[in-house]
Design brief:
The structure is a single chain. By secondary structure, the chain is α/β, with parallel strands linked by helices. The protein has a single domain, classed as Rossmann fold (3-Layer(aba) Sandwich). The protein has six helices and five strands, in the order βαβααβααββα. It has a five-stranded parallel β-sheet, with helices on both faces. It starts with a strand and ends with a helix.
Length: 151
C-alpha cells in the first residue's frame, strides 16, 4: 500500500477526490469507505493498511482533529514513522493537533483545484522515486550476493 488516507467521514468528499486523483497517478490508496468490503473486520483491515502503507495523508479538518479514530490512526502513523502529510483546509495550520503540527503541512484553504491536483501529483512522484531507489538498492544487494557467492 502506498498511501493511507486518515479522515473524518464528514470529509468524505475531499477524501474521495484525493483518492481518485492519486489512484489515477498509479498509487495504491487505502480509503476506508472505498477499500473495505462488506463483512470485513474493519478494525483489522485499517490497522493492516496503516502497517503496510509508506505515507499517511491526514485530512486535518476541525471535525477530523476531534475524532478519536483519526487520533488513533495518527498515533499509529507516528509510532511506525510513516511519512505524514497533514492537509488543512478549514482551519489555521496553528490548530493542528499535537505532534502532527511538527510535520510540514499543505494548506488547501485557498488552493485552486489545479493547485490541489499539482500537490497530489508531486506526492505521487516522490513515492514513485522512492520505490525506484529502493528497487535499485535491492538489486545492488542481490548482485553483490551473487558476485560474492561466485568467488
Amino acid at each position: 500500500m502506498d498511501i493511507f488516507i486518515s479522515y473524518s467521514t464528514k470529509d468524505e468528499r475531499i477524501a474521495r477526490f484525493l483518492q481518485q486523483h492519486l489512484t489515477n497517478e498509479s498509487m495504491s490508496v487505502f480509503l476506508a469507505s472505498a477499500s473495505l468490503q462488506p463483512g470485513q473486520l474493519w478494525s483489522e483491515e485499517v490497522l493492516n493498511a496503516l502497517r503496510t502503507s509508506s505515507w499517511v495523508l491526514f485530512l486535518a479538518s476541525r471535525v477530523a482533529c476531534s475524532s478519536a479514530w483519526v487520533q488513533q490512526e495518527l498515533g499509529a502513523a507516528l509510532i511506525t514513522k510513516k511519512t505524514l502529510v497533514p492537509i488543512v483546509w478549514d482551519m489555521p495550520l496553528s490548530q493542528l493537533p499535537g505532534w502532527t503540527a511538527h510535520y510540514q503541512a499543505l494548506d488547501f484553504g485557498r488552493a485552486s483545484l489545479d493547485e490541489v491536483k499539482s500537490q497530489m501529483t508531486a506526492i505521487a512522484q516522490r513515492i514513485k522515486a522512492n520505490k525506484v531507489q529502493g528497487l535499485l538498492i535491492a538489486g545492488l544487494i542481490v548482485a553483490s550476493l551473487f558476485a560474492f557467492g561466485s568467488t
